[in-house]
Amino acid sequence: MKTANIAVIVLSLAALAADAGGKAELPECACRLVPQEGAALAVVTGEPRYVSIWDYSISPSGEHYFSVCAEGTVSAYARLYRYLPDRNEVRRVFRLEDVAVTRDEAVRPSKLHSSIDFLPDGRVIMATHTTAAAPNHPRWMPFAYYPDLREGYPGSNILIYDPKTGRTEDLGVPVVHESVYGGTYEKTTHSYYFTGYHRGHIYRFDLATRRVTDFGQAVEYGTWRWVHAADGNLYTTTASGRLVRLNVREQRLEDVPFDFPVKPELMALGTNNKMMHYAADGKGFWFTSLSCDRLMRYDLATASVTVGACFVPEVLRKASPQVRCMGMCADETGTLWLLEEVIGVGQYLVSIAITGTGKVI
């Protein structure tokens, strides 16, 4: 982590179930806080209908960008914001309806979801996604209205924002009716690669020619994470828990034959087992999946996955059998930092030391 400040957003502290005696007891970890001198709070105001943040990216020059999003029963357009660490301030960059071609009667592009990335000249590239209802719908219904020409989702827009001029360019909709669930820029091909939420296809948008390549269906649906590995290739994941390699040089998809382990208590939450968060280095990358509490590592030399130790500390394990990783990065020493969610209790910052042999200690 190269930024001095770490902002921790606490979403909720759910009510705990009472024990047999009728007395609710907090687990030991419930009131633990990160050192408060390292925490800062900046509040987004004037956006009462927006309930979540699904993308936060820091540019190579240190600029922070994030999107505030509308979901579920709300019908609203996405917003892009900047966070200024030195001032602890947030500033709105744009309202989507002001910079992109949209249709008010349709399912709304309500967020930027794991798609913010950066071009070599400092511009910011991103794609819209939807989890918001059309104005006449009771809630978000993207599959029920998929083929509807008027009230369905027209398709995601690819956008480029230039911080030098303050202008945003709408490159249009690369795939009709498809929602971009995750995207990344790749320098050697000067292209934006992305996954589709509805169909599970992987696509390439060539920024020089503005042509779209459809690599076909690679995942079931609804996966978003992309890893830039040191071998020059891109890696993403299926929803059921398997790595997919996009061989950049050969321009083809390749299977990594290993199924992630599953913890039944986490799968019972009604989720899937896709790769969630990762930390890459010169020899591979560490990662976690949504329904597994084990740390995993992909090794570039052997092109294989190794399952490591459980990443949940004992104090959190005692609080609940349902603990999952909701964020990961590595610092300059190689220490892994995980944001771990204890279901029904809260979220905790956990550090994991890695030895020179790759062993978790």
Structure commentary:
The structure is a single chain. The protein is mostly beta strands and 361 residues long. It is built from three helices and 24 strands. The chain has helices spanning 96-99, 264-267, 314-319; strands at 52-58, 64-69, 79-84, 89-95, 111-112, 117-118, 124-129, 158-162, 167-170, 180-186, 191-196, 201-206, 212-217, 227-228, 234-237, 242-247, 252-259, 275-281, 284-289, 294-299, 304-310, 323-330, 336-342, 346-352. The strands form six sheets. Strands 5, 6, 7, 8 and 9 form a five-stranded antiparallel beta sheet that branches. Strands 1-2-3-4 form a four-stranded antiparallel beta sheet. A four-stranded antiparallel beta sheet has the order 10-11-12-13, with no helix packed on it. It is globular. The two termini are 20 Å apart.
Brief rundown of the structure:
By secondary structure, the chain is mostly beta strands.
Spell out the key features of this protein:
3 helices; four-stranded antiparallel beta sheet; five-stranded antiparallel beta sheet; 361 residues; 4% helix; mainly beta
So how many helices?
3
Name the structural class: mainly beta
Count of distinct strands: 24
Radius of gyration: 21 Å
Oligomer: single chain
Shape: globular
State the distance separating the first and last CA atoms: 20 Å
Strand content of the residues, in percent?
A: 35-45%
Summarize the amount of helix as a percent range.
under 10%
